[in-house]
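We were asked to recover a plausible sequence for a given structure. The inputs and outputs are reproduced exactly as logged, with field labels preserved.

PROBLEM: sequence recovery
POSITIONS: 249
GIVEN STRUCTURE:
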């Protein structure tokens, strides 16, 4: 049985990491190293805890679930992260840190050239025709509600947007001593599966958070409360990391 356990451990730890992160989260590396250094335990998956925005059915395994701005770190700036209008066109499953780095490195667009006298006169003439005469052709403006097409729906209009914080969640094959140690720090430690003497244990924190940020029509439920939302996420990260440190001490 020990030989079988050692073989399973070697096989699992030797597998290519196929997670979206491509490796163990920074804040989970130490706890995974401590567990995997033991002879009676090894990790099969891990997540140090993350926050993200999502919409859809709320279950990642379905096609009706999209998440945005995934972050395993503190949110340093509240307004950009909780700016829901800018979700339009954003990459699904995109890491918030990558988006911040891209935004910070992007050069500022050059200022538009000042209008020439001729172009300014042309622009004012078109504006006058649109306002006073209704215009025609490319200058015509269809009255709203009278046969005009509604504006296209953006990614930010696709239903209610939710905020989720998922705490530490390692899955492991472990002996009773590891389970007992985990239960002194984490409230939720239990058997995830049991087949052919292969017992899989799941450990997860109790800092989870699930709350809507908009109603289904897209109307914000926390207008002007970005700093408060930021603290809801960051305080959970800090508590979660403190428990990881206690477990690895």
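RECOVERED SEQUENCE:
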């Amino acid at each position: 049985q020990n030989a079988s356990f050692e073989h399973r451990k070697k096989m699992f730890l030797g597998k290519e990491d196929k997670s979206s992160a491509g490796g163990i989260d920074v804040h989970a590396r130490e706890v995974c190293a401590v567990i995997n250094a033991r002879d009676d335990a090894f990790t099969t998956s891990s997540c140090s805890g993350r926050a993200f925005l999502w919409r859809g059915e709320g279950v990642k395994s379905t096609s009706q679930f999209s998440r945005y701005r995934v972050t395993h770190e503190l949110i340093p700036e509240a307004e950009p992260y909780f700016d829901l209008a800018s979700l339009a066109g954003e990459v699904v499953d995109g890491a918030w840190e990558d988006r911040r780095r891209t935004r910070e490195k992007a050069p500022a667009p050059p200022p538009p050239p000042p209008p020439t006298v001729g172009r300014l006169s042309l622009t004012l003439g078109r504006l006058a025709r649109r306002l006073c005469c209704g215009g025609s052709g490319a200058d015509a403006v269809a009255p709203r509600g009278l046969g005009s097409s509604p504006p296209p729906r953006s990614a930010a209009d696709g239903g209610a947007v939710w905020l989720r914080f998922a705490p530490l969640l390692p899955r492991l094959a472990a002996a009773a001593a590891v389970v007992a140690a985990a239960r002194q720090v984490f409230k939720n430690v239990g058997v995830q599966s049991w087949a052919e003497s292969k017992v899989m244990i799941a450990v997860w924190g109790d800092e989870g958070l699930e709350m809507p940020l908009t109603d289904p029509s897209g109307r914000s439920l926390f207008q002007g409360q970005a700093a408060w939302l930021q603290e809801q996420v960051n305080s959970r990260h800090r508590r979660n990391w403190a428990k990881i440190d206690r477990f690895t001490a």
